[in-house]
Write a structure and sequence with these properties.
About 25% of the residues lie in helices and about 30% in strands. By secondary structure, it is of the alpha/beta class.
């Protein structure tokens, strides 16, 4: 296993060739890799699901800690199946290979305070239970969704799967509030089960649901979340105003929630 900190990937790497890899993106807050145990567990689950050879997880944890170079930043960990010759077969692969990179943390304060406008995506996510939930490197659907978003006046888009069930936003999970309860989509066919979703599902005791679009007609509030942006209130969905107060309470609780 090779650790390549901020190194360029080579053309023989299967992550470059086929998207044959997984990744996670971690927020560093006050010099600490936030929710690292949950990120690590998700990487381990992805490695198992895709049948990679097991990395040295302790060494990976050490490398993540060594990569911290600022009080506030982003660390991205990519695990590739490794290098091999031409062809899809994973036989005789040398690996896994791990790449760790850092970047500045985007400023989400404005969206956190004012909220975002959410539209509905035309593109629908393909259903594949084997890949559902894990953060694999095949992200062409999200690239096309970002391209679609650029032609709208919205801040983000709500995405359905090909069965018509509400799944997620482009790069964030979603939670819905109705009748004093929180709900979040079940991601057993499509979508990414984010670390922040895991934290908030436990904190809010949110019910996992499979909702077609028309079930959203009665919701009172909605937010998007991921490990970098935290909780972003949605002030309008498809130009329909939504309440912000229930989301404000979640933001306040999350500020002092410790895993």
């Amino acid at each position: 296993m090779d650790f390549l900190v901020q190194a360029g990937i080579t053309t023989g790497d299967r992550s470059f060739q086929f998207g044959d890899g997984i990744f996670t993106t971690i927020r560093v807050r006050a010099g600490v890799a936030e929710y690292w145990p949950l990120h690590l567990t998700r990487l381990q689950q992805g490695v198992t699901r895709l049948g990679f050879r097991e990395p040295d997880w302790q060494q990976l944890s050490n490398q993540v800690q060594q990569a911290i170079s600022a009080r506030e930043q982003v660390i991205k960990v990519v695990i590739s199946r490794g290098h091999a010759g031409r062809g899809y077969s994973p036989a005789a692969v040398s690996g896994p290979d791990i790449y760790i990179s850092t970047a500045g943390l985007p400023d989400y304060q404005r969206q956190q305070q004012l909220g975002i406008g959410l539209g509905l995506a035309r593109l629908q996510l393909g259903c594949q239970p084997l890949l559902a939930g894990i953060k694999h490197n095949n992200r062409l659907e999200q690239v096309l969704l970002k391209q679609e978003l650029a032609g709208t006046g919205f801040d983000d888009l709500l995405v359905l799967d090909q069965r018509g069930f509400v799944t997620e936003a482009i790069a964030a999970n979603v939670f819905f509030y109705r009748d004093g309860r929180w709900f979040t989509p079940l991601l057993d066919q499509a979508g990414v089960a984010g670390v922040m979703r895991q934290v908030l599902q436990q904190q809010l005791q949110a019910e996992l649901v499979q909702w077609p679009l028309d079930k959203l007609q009665g919701i009172e509030a909605l937010f998007c979340c991921n490990a970098l942006c935290g909780v972003l209130p949605v002030h309008t969905f498809a130009e329909k105003p939504l309440q912000l107060a229930p989301v404000r309470q979640v933001q306040q609780e999350l500020a002092c929630y410790v895993v």
